[in-house]
Amino acid sequence: MFERLIRIWERLRHSLWILPLLFGLVGSLLAGCIMVLPDLPFKQMFSPIWPIFSDISDVRNMIGMLLPALVTMFTLALSITMVVLTLAAQNLGPRLIRNFLGDHATQSVIGIFVANITFLVTALLMMGGLEAHNDVAQVAGLVGALIFVISLFSLIVFVHHLGRSIVSDQVIIEVGDRLEKIISETHDRVGHAVIEARNAGTILPEALAIDPETAIQATQSGYIQGIDYDGLCKRITEHHAYVELIRQPGEHVLKGEVIGRILCDESQLETLRVQINRDVAKTVMIGNYRTAALDVEFSLRQIVEIAVRALSPGINDPFTAIASVYRLGRALRHTLAFVYPIGLWMDDNSIARLSGPVSDFSGMLGAAIDQIRQAAAQKPDVLIPIAQTLEGLIPFISTDRQRDEIRRQAKIIINTARREIGEPDDCRDVEKAARRVLRYSAEWHETTLGENPLKENQPQDS
User: Fold this and answer.
1) What is the domain count for the chain?
2) Which pTM value belongs to this model?
3) Which residues are listed as membrane-spanning (predicted)?
4) Which residue in 95, 150, 154, 447 has the most C-beta neighbors within 10 A?
């Protein structure tokens, strides 16, 4: 249930219209509240600037002048937004458009314009039956003028914000911060299951080895956007069965494809198969696109896409690629908590009920490094930072599997340098950085793993 709510929130958060809609409703509500105010001593309350207008016709005239100006500024703000989205799609990647659409500053500024327009329109409509010298209309005109000034300064702030938002370094920082948050949230949800699976030595079957009688099939085609593991575990516990999933969030499945199997008493299989398949269909969320909130590797690839585009011949910006590598290194530091590629969920009696694949450090490291390394095969100025990033992760690794994956990446860098870099000195520099990774990792030995390996391997202050 929690994962389903996250998916809904993710969809709403990246919708450009939801916050402006709320602002517009607030603007109309504010105008309505002002126009139905009782006869209060407004002259005494605003005595330094009262009377503001000679009569209600002046208020109507002012609103008639402000509305076209507001609509023009609102159109300008939308035009600037479209230009920024176009530049972002060309230089940073179309998958980052969602981040720009979900930017709260952009939504808020557009919302201020919408609120101001709806306020003035609502106030103008409600002035139809008022007397010529109505004090409430004076207050509505004053508030409308103040909101107009706020909208004017908001446009200036908006232009400044959008100017900064398309700078690649700023985008890398913001996407990286969001990535670290997603990694932390994902670990909070599945970290305990990863430890359980590692301690139990849990393994998963291959799809071809699953008996069709016990198979669980996908009910539709698309990406697995999220899995409600806890909810599915509770449903399986009610059936006194055990389910092994073989697919994880982020993977694409076809309708009818095997995504898991049921293990239970053979006498109950015929009855439970329909019920458990129905439960899996409700808790395994499949859609047409991947979601960043429930898919760590998708979030990693947003930064990877920035780096790969920067290394393309049309852009050729190695500095952006280097910044992406270092920011990925900071995020990969947190992925070391994922020490095993499988999760195991227990019921209240510590009986295993559900297991399934999860993203582990090896998969995340490959998702972060492979495409950048391939695109930078002839660029020693990018390969060396990749090796330095791998070296920086060594003090925090927790398992032999993590060490072996780092060593594998270092060996690939050496082979890539020998094959692609023609300048001997450049090749030697890359090899030196990669061999330093091999030398330092060879001195590491696996230690006892606790609930959170990140905390255990943090250096202690002297």
Assistant:
1) 3
2) 0.81
3) 16-37, 63-88, 109-130, 136-159
4) 154
263 with 362, same domain? no
266 lies in the same domain as 192: yes
Look up residue 207 and give its two tokens.
């799809």
Burial level of 418, CB count in 10 A (0-12/13-18/19+)?
exposed
pLDDT digits (tens, 9 = 90+) for 254-304: 999 999 999 998 888 888 999 999 999 999 999 888 887 668 888 899 999
pLDDT greater than 90 at residue 95: no
**Cα distance between residue 162 and residue 85, in whole Å:** 10
Other Cβ atoms less than 10 A from the Cβ of 51: the count is: 13
Tell me, what CATH number does 213's domain have? 3.90.1170.30
Q: Are 382 and 324 in contact (CB under 8 A)?
A: no
Same-domain status, 437 and 334: yes
350: region left, alpha or beta (phi > 0 left; psi from -120 to 50 alpha):
left
Tokens matching residue 180: 């670290």
What is the average per-residue pLDDT within 385-402? 94
Range of 247's domain? 188-287
The candidate with the shortest Cα–Cα distance to 335, out of 447, 226, 454, is 454
Buried b (16+ CB within 10 A) or exposed e, 76-105: ebeebbeebbeebeebbbebbbbbbbbbee
Do residues 309 and 299 make contact, with C-beta atoms less than 8 angstroms apart?
no
